[in-house]
Amino acid sequence: MSQFFNPPDGAVKLTPKQANIYLWGWQKNARFRDAVCGRRFGKTFLAKAEMRRAARLAAKWNVSVEDEIWYSAPTFKQAKRVFWKRLKQAIPPSWRAGKPNETECTITLKSGHVIRVVGLDNYDDLRGSGLFFLIIDEWADCKWAAWEEVLRPMLSTCKYIVNGEQRVGGHVLRIGTPKGFNHCYDTFMDGQPGHEPDCRSFSYTSLQGGNIPESEIIVAKRKMDPKTFSQEYEASFESYQGVIYYCYNRVLNASTETVQPNDTLHIGMDFNVTKMSAVVYVRRGDTMHAVDEFVDLFDTPAMIEAIKERYPKHSIGVYPDASGDNRKSVGASYTDISLLKNAGFNVFVNTTNPAVKDRINSTNGMLCNTLGSRRLFVNTDKCPRFAKCLERQIYDDHGQPDKKAGFDHMNDSGTYPIAYLFPIKIKQDPIEINPIPTINRWN
Ligand SMILES: Nc1ncnc2c1ncn2[C@@H]1O[C@H](COP(=O)(O)OP(=O)(O)OP(=O)(O)O)[C@@H](O)[C@H]1O
Ligand SMILES: [Mg+2]
User: Which InterPro entries does this one have (predicted)?
Assistant: First the structure.
C-alpha cells in the first residue's frame, strides 16, 4: 500500500539536543521547562513529540478530561499556521475520537481528552478549563500577563497518579528565541542550577539543532549585525535596539562594593506617590557604585523614615527630582524637597531638572565612554531592580523614555545623582552681577 493510504503514525525522531529537552519532561524538578534556542533549531518540531507524549500520558495517568493539552503561540493566526497541520500529523487518526475541528483547531482523543491550538492574543477568552500540559511557542513574544493571569492558574488544579503517587499540577514547556532581557530571560534564569527547584532551562544555538548547515550560518554572520546574529542564531540574551541605557552591561558594570561605616551616601530619588524609589551610591575615587535601593515606598515621609532606619549614622546627600520643589505630597505647607531638608539630609538639586537627554547621555557616558572606560557600577545583588530597569527601559514610539512598562522610576532615581555630579555639559561659572547663592557640589 502506498504511504498515502497508510499514513505514518506521527512518531518523530529527535536530534540529541531536542532529546535532552524531551527527557526532562514530566520530572518533578522540571515542571516548568524553558528551551531558549536559536532560529530553526527545531523547537516547534520538538513540540510535536511533546504533544504526542502528553496525549498518551493523559490516558495512562487517568487525567480528568476537563484538563486539556494545549499548544499556544502569540496569536491564534500564528499558532494555527505554524502548528495545526503538524499537530494533525503528530496525532494519528487511530487515536482520535472523530474528525479534527478545523475552526476551533481541536482534536478530541478516544480517551476523551482535548488537544487544542490557541493564540494568546485574546487570553481572557481562554479561561474555563484546566490544563494537563501546555506548550508556549515564541515565548519571548507572548504577553507575560497571559501566563501569569490565565495560564499559570489553569495548570495548578490538574491531578493525576503516577506509579501510585498522587501528583498535582500540569506541566509546561516554553520555547522560543530570546528578545532582549524580558520575561523570557527571567523564566530562563529560574531554570538555571541553584534557582527555582521545579524549573529547568536549556539553551542551544541554531547550529546545535543540526537543521541549518554551517554555510548558512556563515552567510547570516556576514549579513547581520553582531547583536542580532547572537540573539537569533546563538540564542543569546542581548540588550536590543531601543534600550536607553545601552552601555550598561550586567557583567562589565558589576560592582562588589557595599556601604562602609564611614561612607557618604549619595541617594538619587524620584517622587511618585505609592511608587517612591531611590538608588544609593557610594563614591570610590572617580567611580560611582550603586550599592542599595528602595523600591515602591508609599510617599516622601515613608522614604525618609526608611532611609533613616537603614542608615542612621551615615552622612546623606539626596539628589531628587527637581519638580519635588513644587509638589506637595503631604499637607499644604511642605513640598517633597522641604521635607527632605527638614529631615536633615543635604539636598542637591538645580532649579530645574536637566534635559532628559542630558541625563541619559551622562549616565551612558559613565557606564562606558568611547574610550571603553567604565565609571558607573551596579551591585546587582543589592540593586536587582535598578539593574533590571537599566537593561529594559526602552524609547517609546515618540522617541521618549517609555513610562508604561514600569522600568522608569528606578532609572530616574539612579540617574539624578549622575547627571548632577558628572554632567556632560561643562558648566560655566555664572558671572555674578547680583551675588546669587551657589550650590556646592558635595562629595
Ligand atoms: N528531529 C528532526 N528531524 C527532522 N527534521 C527536523 C527535526 N527537527 C527539526 N526539523 C526540521 O527543521 C526545520 C526547522 O524546525 P522548526 O520549525 O521546528 O524550528 P524552529 O526552531 O521552531 O524554527 P523557528 O525559529 O523558525 O520557529 C523544519 O523543517 C523541521 O521539520
Ligand atoms: Mg518555531
Answer: P-loop_NTPase (IPR027417), Terminase_6C (IPR035421)
Q: What residues does the ion ligand 2 have nearby, CB within 5 Å?
A: 43-44
Domain housing 192: 16-232
* pLDDT tens digits, one per residue of 39-67: 999 999 999 999 999 999 999 999 999 99
Does pTM top 0.85 for this prediction?
no
Specify the pairing of strand 264-270 against strand 276-284: antiparallel
Residue 82 CA to ligand 1 center (angstroms) comes to: 11
State the CATH number of the domain containing residue 275: 3.30.420.280
Segment 9-42, tens digit of pLDDT:
668 899 999 999 999 999 999 999 999 999 999 9
Other CB atoms closer than 10 Å to residue 71's CB: what's the count? 29
- Domain's final residue, options 232, 255, 284: 232
> 389 and 268, same structural domain?
yes
From the CA of 65, how far away is ligand 2's center (Å)? 28
